[in-house]
Design brief:
elongated, alpha/beta, 48% helix, five-stranded mixed beta sheet
Length: 409
Amino acid sequence: MQLHSITELLAIPNYHVSYMVFHNKNRIDLVLEQTTIVPPVCSGCGYVHNTSVHSRGKMVVEDLPISGKRVFLHVPKRKLICREDGRIHVEALDWIQGRFTKRFAEQVYRLTSITTNQEAGWYLGLDDETVYRIDRKRLEELAKEKLSPTPAPRYMSVDEVAWQKWHHYVTNVVDIEKRKVIWNHDNRGKTVLNAFYKSLGPEKCSQIEAVASDGAKGFLSSTRKCAINALIVLDHFHIKSYLNDAVDTVRKDELSKARKSENSELASMLHCKERFILMKNCQTPKRGNFIQKLAELNEPIYKALLLKEQFLAIYAAGSKSLAQKSLKAWIIAAIRSGIPSFIEIGFKFFRKRHFILNYFVCKITTAISEGLNNKIKRLKRMAYGYRDVTYFLLKIHQHCGLLNPRLST
C-alpha cells in the first residue's frame, strides 16, 4: 500500500504519513509529519501561541487497527513556553487523548458497553487498568455533555440497588417515558433524592407530573417537599411484595404450630418448598386444589390468602372512586382479621391510602426501575464487583442510561 493511500485511510487533518518505521504480522508503526506548519496550541491555557518553539520531540499513540494489525503513530510534538503562567507545556492536539487517538478511545468505550473491561482489553491487547482509564475519561466527558444539566422527567420512578455488601446502595432515578436512568447517586434516602431535585431546580421540579416509588419514607418526604405538583404513586408491585411477606409470616407461624402439634399433613403443605404455590397470583388447577385442601386444614392461612386475593382485585376497579370504596373495606377487614401481620399491613395501607389510589389517576409503576436493577446487578456480576463507586455510577449510565452508545447510532 502506498504511503499516500495510508494517509487518506488515516484521514488525520493536516498530517501525512512520512514513512513506515516498523511492520510485522501484528504491528505497524507509522511516522507522521504536519502537512502545513501551523502555530501550536498550548495545553496549559488552550490558546494559540505564535512564540518560538522551546523544543521538539515525538510521542507514540495507538490508533485503530488496520487489517487486524495494531497501528502506532509516531507524532511530532512541540514544547512551548506558555505566556499565561510562564511554564513549559506540550502542544495540544485535539485528535489525541493521552497515548491514544480519540477514535481509539471511542472504540474502547463502545466495546465496554457490551462486554467487560477485561474482555475488551484482551481483544484490543490492553491491560485492565488502561481500559479502565480510557473508559472512565470518555464516560466523564459524555456525562458533562449529556447529563449536565440533569434531564427533567415528566414521569419518573426512583429505586435503589445494592452495589456492595453491608448496606451500600446506589439510588437511581429513571425517566419512565425514555426508559432510561437519568440520574444516580451513592447511598439512599431523603438526602440523596433532595440532591436530585436540587440539581433540577424549582422550575423543573414543578413540571414533574408523577413519581412512582416503593413507599420509603425518605423518598416520600423529599418528593412532597420538592416536587409539589407531582402525584406520588405507591408502586403496586411493591404492594404485592408486602402482601406476600404478610402471607409468608402467617405460613411460618402456622407451620411452627403444626410441627408442635405433630400435624404432619398440614406441615408438609406449609413447608418452605410449597410456599411458592401460596405466593403465585395466577390461578391454576393445581393451586386451586391446594388452597381448597388447605382451607379444610387451617383457617388463618386460608383467611390470609383470601385477604391477599381481595386486595389484588382492587386493581381491577375501573375508577378511583370504586377503588377507594374497595380499599376502605379491605383495610377494615384486614384490621379486624385478627392476624397480626395483616393488622400491621392494614394500618400501613391506611396511612398510605392516597398514594395507593393515585395509581388510578396516573397508572405508572417502578417496573422499569426493577428491570433496570436486574441489568445493573448483571453488570456488577460481570465485573465481579466495583471498588470505585463513581465509575460504577458512570457504567450504569452507559448500560442503562443516556450514555449508551446505541442511542447515538
